[in-house]
Specification:
Length: about 375
């Protein structure tokens, strides 16, 4: 394993708000490791404005042309979800590592197609699941692995957010073909990935969903019960209908309860460790305080590039969130429990998260 560190030439594909508000600051925070050399957007004016605002020397409207001219080491993909597969594939085929915004792609089929383009030692594609990289989650992951808290038994994983009707006026939002799903896919995926990174593999999901108040093709709320390989049972809710917004994760172990309440990111103060009665508190809380953020995850991605290793939140590790979402949709649409082992080629939900158009939501009249 190499301990060398390098400075990497980086390009951004997709000049929207997430690129400017999250990825540029993350790259600047790692300015000793990264140089932002180009930006690409199908809207040439937007690409030019982004380049001017952020001091990027080159802007393009075509990914292929950018890759050929600048040969970046790392490409950050920030396009709408439907464009992820093509953009990531082009970068991998050109030899560039990729860090792609969530949701990774629109189906497990697309995910596996991109994994097949990776090569041993890189390039690899990792996905933005920044919640698992805060210091509190990192400490909790070690405690679980060490058995310090006992066995995981019960969990609650809630993403209760609010998105008004105007939010869904963006043409690609709320549609199976272009967003892949609703809040389960586009919002709750972060908190569910944090849960999965802590509890590991799941085995069975039973779910319901509804389109209650937004004029969308997909759901605007989903609920699920998930059974993990460890035996732990977790309740999962994803909503964009909740005026008091909260991201909440609670895990009950045999010797302690650990919980976090936040919205779009946490620090140590957002977490609480509660020992079981009669168990002394051994100081489980982390001493360092790294917030969950794009900046925190990028450090791990760059370290993997240095070592020519697969980054976290990629490959089988990143696939778990897509698997759970796929199983959740299949269960909600078919009305039956779904096993993780079912999510294979030949299953219609492997290719499309709506199973090929089988979902006909009962939409509240007010939404229309």
């Amino acid at each position: 394993m190499s301990d060398r560190t390098e400075r990497y030439r980086v390009a951004i594909v997709g000049a929207g708000s997430i690129a400017g508000h999250r990825h540029v600051p993350a790259l600047r925070a790692h300015g000793d490791r990264t140089e932002l050399v180009a930006v690409v957007d199908v809207d040439g004016d937007r690409a030019a404005a982004f380049a001017a605002e952020h001091g990027v020397a080159h802007h393009h409207t075509d990914v292929g042309a950018m890759l050929a001219e600048h040969r970046p080491d790392l490409v950050v993909v920030c396009t709408p979800p439907a464009a992820h597969r093509a953009g990531v594939a082009a970068c991998l085929e050109a030899g560039a590592w990729v860090w792609c915004e969530k949701p990774p792609v629109l189906s497990l089929a697309e995910y596996d197609e991109l994994t097949a383009l990776e090569r041993d030692g890189g390039p690899y594609v990792g996905y933005v699941f920044q919640h698992r990289f805060g210091s509190a989650a990192q400490a909790l992951r070690r405690q679980i692995a060490d058995g310090a808290l006992g066995r995981p038994l019960v969990g609650v994983c809630h993403t209760l957010w609010y998105r008004d009707h105007a939010y869904f006026e963006v043409p690609w939002r709320g549609k199976w073909d272009t967003e892949g799903g609703g809040p389960t896919m586009g919002h709750g995926i972060h908190q569910m990935d944090l849960m999965l990174s802590l509890l590991g593999d799941w085995e069975e999901v039973r779910a319901m969903m509804g389109t209650l108040d937004r004029a969308v093709e997909t759901e605007d709320v989903s609920l699920a019960a998930v059974r993990f390989a460890s035996g732990a049972l977790v309740s999962v809710v994803n909503s964009v209908l909740s005026p008091r917004e909260e991201s909440y994760l609670r895990l009950d172990f045999t010797d302690a309860t650990v919980e976090v309440s936040h919205l779009y990111g946490y620090g140590n103060s957002d977490w609480r460790w509660t020992p079981r009665a009669g168990v002394a508190d051994p100081g489980w809380r982390p001493t360092d305080d790294v917030r969950s953020s794009h900046t925190a995850q990028l450090a791990h991605h760059l370290r993997a590039m240095d070592r020519r290793e697969r980054p976290p939140a990629s490959g089988a590790d990143g696939r778990r969130s897509m698997e759970l979402i796929t199983g959740l949709y299949q269960s909600a649409i078919t009305g039956r429990p779904v096993l993780r082992s079912e999510l294979v080629p030949g299953n219609p939900f492997y290719d499309r998260l709506d199973g090929g158009g089988r979902y006909a939501p009962e939409t509240a009249e007010v939404a229309r």
